[in-house]
Amino acid sequence: MSSEFGHLLKISVFGQSHGAAIGVVMDGLPAGEAVDLDALQAFLDRRRPGKNALSTLRKETDRPTFLSGLENGITSGAPLCAMIQNSDQHSSDYSELRDKPRPGHADYTAFVKWQGQADMRGGGHFSGRLTAPLCIAGGIAKQILARRGIQVSAHIQSIGEIEDRPFDSMGEQAEILDRLKAAPFPVLDEHAGERMRAAILQARSERDSVGGVVECIAQGLPAGLGDPMFGGM
Q1: Among 16, 60, 87, 220, which one is most buried in terms of CB atoms within 10 A?
Q2: How far apart, in whole angstroms, are the C-alpha atoms of residue 65 and residue 110?
Q3: What pTM did the predictor assign?
Q4: Which residues contact 10 (CB under 8 A, 6 or more apart)?
């Protein structure tokens, strides 16, 4: 039942969708690394809910409070713990769903795994809300990696049956990756993006949803990364 992953850098998340707060603990961060909190907040704002008709209607500021591991914007070597207070909670909206698991969610899995004791409101610990603390960890890691010449980017590969063009296997130009990082709806082909947005709004009008795929690229990784044989890449 672990909510932790990683070996050299261990990441664990805590909290529930409709609990008091959610958060992340990062254990193994190197000491002395600067964290640009404004850049981190801009990164978090990209996934913040309630911004437009394409995202969940829940309103959250998603401003993290650092409880440990960060002093004057510099990592101290101690485990870094960051917390985000939940504010826009409507738990009564889920009262009918306690014994009605939703298709495409982890409701039934959570109910069985935790023998009926799981917090079922809004998906509880399995909610997409828990991607916010993961973005704190990812945003910090991206800043540290960038200083070492490693860039990580992503785009929406597909929504339903509509596909964006794939990343170039030889790598993408820096200006393309910079555009993706700033785009509210990151796609490589804007025409495909327009069709994706229309598909999402159409599904929403029909009280339905569509699946999606995200493609990620990491450029500048050192050769020989990983360990033989099962820790390789």
Answers
A1: 16
A2: 28
A3: 0.85
A4: 4, 25, 26, 27, 28
